[in-house]
């Protein structure tokens, strides 16, 4: 049995992901050993807050969005699998995962994985959203890719930590 998502439900899932991302990055900010890692994680938490506002703006128009016909049962099951396997499953798990990072490098690896998951989810979300919403999701995808590049660069250059 699969679940069909409305545009509003998808946007609410995205808002939930971003909220859990904030909790995750807030924990990493507090536990980071280096100032550069703390700065990076705080920046990412702040960006997640901006994403929430973008999604809230989209939610206000969600009734106008019609999910494309491509969102059949199989596609809905795929989206559900992405949601179920996300690194940020709830606030408690988020805090536990973040607090298990015993070094800045491990924290960066967790953050890189989270950003990859987010990019995959938002590409999938974009495919089924209508035109105006797609451009908003494109903006978030672009930012998530930027986060991934920044985290990867920091991991490649541990002396910057």
CATH superfamily: Ferritin, core subunit, four-helix bundle
Distance between the terminal alpha carbons, to the nearest Å? 47 Å
Radius of gyration: 16 Å
Number of strands: 0
Tally of DSSP helical segments: 6
Overall 3D geometry? elongated
What count of domains describes the coordinates? 1
User: What's the architecture in CATH terms?
Assistant: Up-down Bundle
The residue-averaged pLDDT reads: 80
Poorly predicted runs of 5 or more residues: none
Category by helix and strand content:
mainly alpha
CATH class: Mainly Alpha
Structure description:
The protein has 161 residues and is mainly alpha-helical. It has one domain (7-160): Ferritin. It has six helices and no strands. It has helices at residues 7-31, 35-60, 73-84, 91-99, 104-128, 131-156. α1 (7-31) runs antiparallel to α5 and α2 (35-60) packs antiparallel against α6. The longest helix is centred in the first third of the chain and has 26 residues, at 35-60. It starts with 6 loop residues before the first helix and ends in a 5-residue tail after the last helix.
